[in-house]
Amino acid sequence: MAEQAREKPYILHFITTQKNVSPFDANMARDAGYDSIFTYTNVTPEEITGLVQDAIFSRGPRGVWRTGIFIGGRSMDVAMEMLETAKKAMFPPFQVSLFADPSGAFTTGAALSAHVVATCREKFNSTLRGKRVVVFGATGPVGGCASIMCAKEGADVTMVAHSSLEKTQALADKYHAQYGVTLKVVDGSNEAKKADIIADAEILLSCAAAGVRVITTAMLQNAKNLIIAADVNAVPPSGIEGIDARSDATPIAGADWALGLGALAIGSRKYNLQKQMFQAMMDNETAVSLDFLSAFEIARKLG
Predict the structure, then answer these.
(1) CB within 8 A of 153, min separation 6: which ones?
(2) How far apart are CA 150 and CA 181, in angstroms?
(3) C or N: which end of the chain has fewer Cβ atoms within 10 Å?
């Protein structure tokens, strides 16, 4: 009887395509309340069904909703594929909560986009509808997620190709087919082209690799329509010159007609968002499936 009365612990199965799991994500899951975290590395999409079904049958009704599966990795597309495969591998009453966040990109992209939406509302009494949004680093998972989220808010989104115009256009076409958004693509392979691209932008998002300066103060001088610029790069130098990592809707140095959102300000929101999403898995007695669109919805509610 004592055994029956005792609640089962919260268990998280952490699956990644990489050699190692993310220590950041593991810490976040533990701090959110998971009692045990079991890790699976170098996992391929073909292995998901077997792993999921092996996890769902052993714990009974109370144990099932206290069991979660987290999907990490590096690729947005692979993580979404694994998430869909995991959902299809389950059936009532054997269903556990799922959360995909490869390299933290889903929660970072959602925190970034939600912060831009909130800044538009609070500082300019406006929405993203019709706003000209330019995304650098758009082929990465953070930039890809942010492009989709902003487009779903009604923004006129342009994805900037830094090396391959064809690769970026292929991504835009894929996102259109999968998520019903229309995204423009332009060539930003040199400094002059980047300066021309941002000249008419109202919102500028820098989601490029860490430690890479994408936009200089000189480029910003022609961007007189700019109202918000956001940079997710916390590793010096900043992706956008003049934006301090701690900037939180403060004027950009050298381009003070626009407000800057720095990496640490965005990161604080990302931290709270990821914690909320892990807790949502534990708080719901019915299974939830969380992806980047779910993350954006939760981030909007967090403010």
Answers:
(1) 113, 117, 127, 128, 129
(2) 9
(3) N
Mean pLDDT over residues 247-271, rounded? Answer: 97
SS3 235: coil
Cα 142 off chain centre by: 5
* Domain boundaries 108-266, CATH class: alpha beta
CATH class of 2-100: alpha beta
Q: Which residue pairs, CB below 8 angstroms and at least 24 apart, start in 82-85?
A: 82/15, 82/43, 82/45, 82/48, 83/289, 83/291, 85/45, 85/48, 85/49, 85/52
Residue 62 predicted with pLDDT over 80 = no
Structure confidence by residue, pLDDT tens digits, 5-15: 468 899 999 99
pLDDT, one tens digit per residue, over 154-183 is: 999 999 999 889 999 999 999 999 999 999
- CB distance 91 to 116 below 8 Å: no
Supply 218's token pair. 């000189």
Peptide bond into 237 cis (omega under 30): yes
Q: Per-residue pLDDT tens for 88-130?
A: 999 988 999 999 999 999 999 999 999 999 999 999 999 999 9
DSSP state letters, 34-73: -SEEEEE-S--GGGHHHHHHHHHSSSHHHHHHTEEEEE-S
Number of alpha helices (DSSP H) and beta strands (DSSP E) in the chain:
12, 12
Residue 19 dihedral angles phi and psi, to the nearest 5°: -65, -35
- Tokens at residue 303, please? 């403010």
Q: Is-same-fold flag (2-100; 108-266)?
A: yes
Each domain of the chain, given as residue ranges in start order, spans 2-100, 108-266
Residue 79: enclosing H or E segment and its boundaries? helix 76-88
pTM of this structure: 0.94
Angle between helices 76-88 and 105-124 (to 10 degrees): 110
